[in-house]
Design brief:
679 residues; 18% strand; OB fold (Dihydrolipoamide Acetyltransferase, E2P); binds adenosine-5'-diphosphate; alpha/beta; seven-stranded mixed β-sheet; binds magnesium ion; 38% helix; 24 helices
Length: 679
């Protein structure tokens, strides 16, 4: 198999430069890569139904003969409509296609075809919209591949058939034989043939099981290697714990969870020979900033310089302001560095950092700039870390000599999964909210109730509260402004017309955003009509209503983050989701939000609904993206963990002949993710 990874994809017949580029877009560069590009799902054309027997509302295959086909016509909106009628001898069905006028030439001649789509028994009899049409001879199970514009699943299938013919007689299986036997896995040969072209769906399932096992095994071996490779020692050991002193600066007493997290961090930095590498995971509002501040305080008091990186200017400004206040009576010197500072202001921050006059710098990715040089960077903290790429994080880390690392995340991940993906990080969980927090009551309404909701907002504002309205999402970001402005304009004709309203959107200049955010935080604005730029981190204690338009367009974790912007003070807070979507799955998803405020529970549901792709995604954690393993495969984790241990005990460096395939696959999986957050 390794040799096929050296064969460029355009060696296949029918794959030229242009198509090779499309494959490249899908992450496929070589013939080997193509064989490892798996179907998203399958279409079962093996047992065609009659029209009456076809299950309603699910996609299936129907066999029928063309009865009539009328020439395509242009309809409203420039679409081209093609209508035909088919029959299976007992029943008739109307079939409609949009913008597929080329089918007319084929279908007008009549004959029998397979139609793969959803049968509906409507007011005018049976009907089907936009099915896939194939000749009767093409029965069987068809793979459906992820697509990109210009590259259909049929074309990928054709390329795949060719690639299959190049497979060697005997494939080298990366999984050693003893493991295959012990866990009753099928061979790589069986898996590759049956993941693409199974005779039965149960064979595809068997193949998928084995490939998921392989993927998790390789992930775990790779992580173990990363962990083993971490032998650096730290020169930044702390002498003394200053956390008590810090806690006395706080206007509140820390929660048990906050104290525990701080203790764990300080223990890492005081009593270990190697640098701290810790993830602080806490639901929105659990008080991660105070934990970071405590750790910074202690580090600075021990003579280290600290860098605190956050994803947005708004957040940087907010952290800077609150930490400046907190540290105002101390000797800690704190700076803010963001892209929107003037060149002069930037230069003075650079100088202060280089000659050690700044102890703590808070900033955006402006911190990564080459001009930033630290005198003695000993601690790097990143907030909302899923917003940063691996490269950005390591760029900052490499400005120090093996500094301590702390990352903070509000994406609550079930603990087992977190330990698995962050196998090389230590974990502190803030599983307790500050006292006095009330549950944010959450409602789902449809557009018809919008005016009533506005009335509710008005009442809250009259009582001294503030509101967020997250605008309807639009496809292009250029449209963002228009949508926010239009929305704010419409508000003028409602009960909210007299309220002080401002707009915040992603296209605004950072300075402008800061100004508005500060005004909102200062209570000078009642309603902030915003796109999702407010999603992360922002803290406005008097904000009591979060109204989200087009709630169905957001993922659960994102909705939870948005909701986390309210209920941060003592006031009772509310989240109103507006959606006209009637789909059952959507209602179920939004229902989860109404049912619970617990981020961990929501993350669990989110994982079930979306699969762990996002949690494993390179973008989020700098870890390889898994292609096959899904949530349902997580039960396999114990087995793959034991298998990984067995392999490493026998051959730590994977140098033995039977482990070469594994080493190759590890390199391949991790190459895509660009390494790990460890340098
Ligand atoms: P997040 O974990 O979402 O980053 P923050 O650090 O922004 O949360 O904290 C949210 C709010 O809770 C802030 O206003 C903060 O001052 C307050 N807070 C944090 N810890 C406590 C505590 N122990 N007691 C009371 N309020 C707290
Ligand atoms: Mg935060």
């Amino acid at each position: 198999m390794p040799s096929l990874f050296k064969m460029p994809i355009d060696k296949l017949k029918g794959v030229g430069k242009r198509k090779a580029e499309l494959f490249h877009k899908l992450g496929v560069d070589s013939v080997g890569g193509l064989l490892r590009f798996y179907p998203r799902t399958y279409e079962d054309w093996s047992k065609p139904y009659t029209i009456a027997e076809a299950p309603q509302n699910t996609v299936c295959c129907v066999r029928a003969e063309i009865e009539a086909a009328s020439p395509p016509v242009r309809i409203r909106g420039g679409m081209i409509l093609l209508k035909i009628e088919v029959s299976d001898g007992s029943d008739r069905m109307k079939v409609t296609f949009f913008n597929q006028q080329y089918l007319y030439e084929k279908l007008r001649l009549g004959g029998e075809f397979l139609f793969y789509g959803t049968v509906r028994n409507g007011a005018y009899g049976y009907e089907m919209t936009s099915p896939t049409v194939s000749p009767v001879g093409s029965a069987g199970i068809h793979p459906v591949y992820p697509q990109t514009a210009g590259l259909s699943t049929k074309q990928t299938e054709a390329a795949m058939r060719q690639a299959m013919s190049l497979l060697p007689e005997k494939m080298n299986d990366p999984i050693p034989e003893n493991i295959i036997r012990k866990y009753h896995l099928c061979t790589l040969d069986f898996a590759i043939r049956n993941i693409h072209f199974p005779q039965k769906l149960s064979d595809a399932e068997k193949a998928k099981q084995r490939l998921a096992f392989e993927e998790l095994l390789i992930l775990q071996l790779g992580m173990a290697k990363l962990k083993g490779g971490r032998k650096e020692t730290t020169t930044h050991r702390l002498e003394k714990d200053y956390s008590r002193e810090f806690f006395s600066l706080l206007p509140f007493s820390p929660t048990g969870a906050q104290k525990r997290a701080v203790e764990e961090c300080i223990d890492d930095m005081m009593n270990r020979p190697y640098p701290m590498n810790r993830l602080i995971q806490g639901d929105v509002g659990s008080g991660k900033t105070a934990v970071a501040a405590a750790v910074c305080y202690t580090a600075v008091k021990n003579g280290l310089q600290c860098a605190f990186m956050v994803p947005t200017e708004i957040l940087a400004a907010q952290h800077f302001q609150s930490l400046s206040e907190l540290f105002s009576g101390t000797d800690i010197r704190i700076s803010l560095l963001t892209g929107s500072l003037t060149a002069v202001a930037k230069r003075s921050v650079y100088e202060a950092l280089e000659n050690g006059e700044t102890d703590l710098v808070i900033g955006t990715h402006a911190l990564i700039s080459d001009s930033v040089v630290f005198q003695r960077l000993g601690l790097v903290i990143t907030d909302e870390q899923h917003r940063f790429g691996v490269a950005q994080r390591s760029a900052l880390i490499s400005k120090g000599e093996s500094p301590h690392i702390m990352v903070m995340s509000a994406t609550p991940i079930p603990r087992t999964l977190a330990l698995m993906i962050f196998g090389d990080l230590d974990l502190s969980v803030l599983d307790e909210l500050p006292p006095g927090r009330q549950k944010v009551d959450t409602f789902l309404i449809d557009g018809a109730k919008r005016q009533r909701a506005f009335g509710f907002l008005k009442k809250q504002i009259d009582a001294g509260g503030q509101c967020y309205i997250v605008c309807p999402l639009v496809g292009q970001s250029e449209m963002e402004l228009a949508s926010a402005e239009e929305y704010a304009e419409k508000l003028k004709d409602t009960v909210l017309g007299s309220c002080r309203t401002a707009i915040l959107h992603g296209k605004m200049k950072p300075k402008e955003k800061d100004r508005i955010m500060n005004e909102f935080a200062g209570g000078d604005i009642d309603i902030l009509v915003s796109t999702t730029v407010i999603e992360v981190g922002v803290n406005v204690p008097d904000a009591v209503v979060m109204m989200i338009e087009n709630a169905e367009r957001f993922g659960l974790s994102q909705l939870h983050q948005l909701r986390g912007r309210v209920g941060r003070g003592k006031r009772k807070s509310y989240c109103i989701m507006v959606s006209d979507m009637q789909k059952e799955s959507t209602l179920a998803r939004l229902g989860v939000m109404c049912r619970t405020n617990n981020g961990f529970e929501i993350a669990d549901e989110d994982l079930k609904l979306r699969g762990p792709g996002d949690f494993f995604g390179a973008r989020q954690h700098g870890l390889p993206e898994l292609k096959v393993a899904g949530m349902s495969d997580m039960a396999m984790l114990d087995d793959t963990q034991s298998a990984a241990r067995m392999i490493l005990e026998a051959d730590l460096d994977l140098e033995q002949k039977e482990h070469r395939g594994l080493a190759f696959e590890i390199a391949r999986l991790f190459a895509k993710a660009g390494g790990s957050h460890l340098q």
